[in-house]
């Protein structure tokens, strides 16, 4: 293949917006906003108006995502050339791994990282668990990270606690590490002006907040502005916060909620239940007259 043909292939539109979103971790809502407001990339269009992004667009968007996560404002860097973005990434200490070189669904990497994380937990290796989570954030898009590593990790921790392969001490080591990781990941999400607001919390008696943090992460991916209130909060307090921000909660529930423990296994069953089910929280928020869901 000659240089001219390579360049033509590199700049030819061939990736849908769904593929680009999955491979960069940028939500489709944010992608459209970056194009409309900052002209970060100009994708080609099909005859029916569908966006098609080139490999060059994909590389630039991957760099923009990593640089904005490291603290740069999108408005300051959106129009810079690829060469300038690479230089900025080096100056900023950003590991500019092009998401275009990764497997589109990230499934193999996610499974391997999941095994590493479980191994670190089993060995009480807190530093190892932090390292695996940081590696996952670098190599996986956020939807894949949440869906194929973090949610299965919580499920498996609950299952292994229930059948005796893990002890309470394993969970007490892992929970704050994953909590801190998810909280930091959510805090770095960009919120666009005018984004609908969702309030995320767990009700009184629900002390495990990992499910709520995963729900908040999913909401961020869908383009919501998330007001996170944490665990074990009375309904009155959740409603007060929602009213103060001008949001009315129309429906809030946890799928599968109900008694799950029996007699001698009450404690273990209840614990495993929280890890298998809590992250499946589904909240419906009415904002500006539009009722929109999020959740798996």
Walk me through this protein's architecture.
The protein has 296 residues and is α+β, with helices and mostly antiparallel strands. The protein has 3 domains: 99 residues, Multidrug-efflux Transporter Regulator, Chain: A, Domain 2; 87 residues, Methyltransferase, Methionine Synthase (B12-binding Domains), Chain A, domain 1; 106 residues, Rossmann fold, CATH 3.40.50. It is built from 13 helices and 7 strands. The strands form 3 sheets. A 3-stranded antiparallel β-sheet has the order 5-6-7. Helix 11 links the parallel strand 3 and strand 4. Helix 8 runs parallel beside helix 10 and helix 9 packs antiparallel against helix 11.
Strand content range: 5-15%
What is the CATH C-level name of the largest domain?
A: Alpha Beta
Please tell me how large the radius of gyration is: 21 Å
Provide the domain count: 3
CATH architecture of the largest domain: 3-Layer(aba) Sandwich
Strand order of the largest sheet: 5-6-7
Write the layout of secondary structure elements.
Blueprint: H1 3-11, H2 17-24, H3 28-38, E1 44-45, E2 51-52, H4 55-69, H5 74-77, H6 82-91, H7 107-122, H8 126-139, H9 142-162, H10 168-187, E3 197-203, H11 210-221, E4 225-233, H12 235-244, E5 248-253, H13 266-277, E6 282-287, E7 290-294
Parallel strand pairs: 3-4
Antiparallel strand pairs: 1-2, 5-6, 6-7
Helix pairs in contact: 4-6, 7-8, 7-9, 8-10, 9-11, 9-13, 10-11
Structure at a glance:
Helix content is 55%, strand content 12%. It is of the alpha+beta class.
Sum up the structure in keywords.
Methyltransferase, Methionine Synthase (B12-binding Domains), Chain A, domain 1, 3 domains, 55% helix, 3-stranded antiparallel β-sheet, 13 helices, two-stranded antiparallel sheet, Multidrug-efflux Transporter Regulator, Chain: A, Domain 2, alpha+beta, 296 residues
């Amino acid at each position: 293949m000659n240089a001219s043909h390579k360049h033509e292939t590199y700049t030819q539109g061939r990736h849908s917006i769904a593929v680009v979103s999955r491979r960069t971790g940028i939500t489709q809502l944010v992608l459209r906003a970056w194009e409309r407001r900052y002209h970060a990339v100009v994708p080609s269009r099909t005859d029916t108006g569908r966006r098609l992004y080139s490999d060059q667009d994909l590389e630039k968007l991957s760099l923009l995502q990593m640089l904005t996560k490291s603290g740069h404002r999108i408005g300051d860097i959106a129009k810079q050339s690829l060469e300038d973005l690479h230089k900025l990434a080096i100056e900023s200490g950003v590991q500019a791994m092009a998401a275009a070189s990764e497997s589109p669904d990230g499934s193999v990497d996610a499974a391997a990282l999941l095994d590493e994380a479980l191994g670190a937990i089993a060995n009480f290796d807190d530093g190892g668990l932090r390292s695996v989570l940081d590696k996952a954030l670098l190599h996986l898009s956020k939807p894949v990270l949440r869906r194929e590593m973090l949610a299965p990790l919580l499920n498996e921790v609950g299952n292994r606690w229930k059948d005796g392969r893990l002890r309470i001490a394993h969970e007490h080591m892992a929970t704050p590490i994953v909590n801190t990781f998810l909280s930091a990941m959510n805090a770095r999400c960009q919120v666009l002006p005018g984004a609908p607001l969702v309030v995320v919390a767990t009700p009184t008696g629900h002390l495990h907040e990992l499910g709520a943090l995963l729900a908040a992460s999913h909401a961020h991916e869908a383009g919501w502005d998330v007001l996170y209130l944490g665990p074990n909060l009375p309904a009155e307090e959740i409603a007060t916060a929602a009213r103060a921000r001008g949001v009315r909660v129309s429906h809030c529930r946890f799928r599968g909620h109900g008694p799950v423990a029996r007699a001698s296994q009450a404690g273990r069953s209840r614990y495993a239940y929280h890890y298998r089910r809590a992250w499946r929280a589904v909240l419906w928020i009415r904002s500006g007259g539009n009722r929109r869901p999020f959740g798996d």
